[in-house]
């Protein structure tokens, strides 16, 4: 279904905010931070070696609305030694969550963000400046 489907430009806005924060870009909300020298990009090659936009959409209402187990989510993940898997979905009252650094390497490595709080296109105007993804990726790195 269309609920929760983010446009390509919305997905890219999340990556832009993430880079602004992690690279401490002057004039942005992350400008007062420390440049981590980590640069995020959407994948250009998928897990099978084919060209990709780095954006994969899955139409699974039960998973999207948290009515099915997380194995459905992780079945869709790409090799977490090569990719940082970021999922957007209905997260209920939470803005998101991430695998903690202590669990690095687990087949459940990744970040989940509410589709309502992702990028500058978030429908929740309190959380429409990309900080949720930055926050969760911060947990991911520990």
From TrEMBL:
Residues 73-141 form the Peptidase M43 pregnancy-associated plasma-A domain. InterPro entries: MetalloPept_cat_dom_sf (IPR024079), Peptidase_M43 (IPR008754). Keywords: Disulfide bond, Hydrolase, Metal-binding, Metalloprotease, Protease, Signal, Zinc. It comes from the Eukaryota. The keyword Metal-binding applies. SUPFAM superfamilies: Metalloproteases ('zincins'), catalytic domain. GO terms for biological process: proteolysis. GO terms for molecular function: metal ion binding; metallopeptidase activity. Belongs to the peptidase M43B family. This is Peptidase M43 pregnancy-associated plasma-A domain-containing protein. It comes from Haptolina ericina. The lineage of its organism: Eukaryota, Haptista, Haptophyta, Prymnesiophyceae, Prymnesiales.
């Amino acid at each position: 279904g269309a609920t929760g489907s983010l446009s390509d430009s919305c997905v890219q806005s999340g990556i832009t905010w993430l880079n602004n924060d992690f690279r401490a870009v002057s004039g942005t909300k992350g400008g007062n931070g420390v440049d981590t020298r980590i640069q995020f990009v959407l994948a250009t090659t998928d897990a099978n070696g084919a060209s990709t936009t780095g954006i994969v959409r899955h139409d699974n209402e039960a998973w999207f609305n948290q009515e099915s187990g997380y194995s459905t989510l992780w079945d869709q993940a790409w090799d977490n030694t090569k990719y940082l898997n970021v999922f957007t979905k209905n997260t209920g009252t939470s803005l998101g969550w991430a695998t903690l650094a202590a669990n690095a390497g687990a087949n459940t490595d990744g970040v989940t963000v509410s589709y309502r709080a992702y990028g500058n296109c978030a429908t929740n105007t309190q959380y429409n400046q990309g900080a949720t993804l930055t926050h969760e990726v911060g947990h991911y790195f520990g």
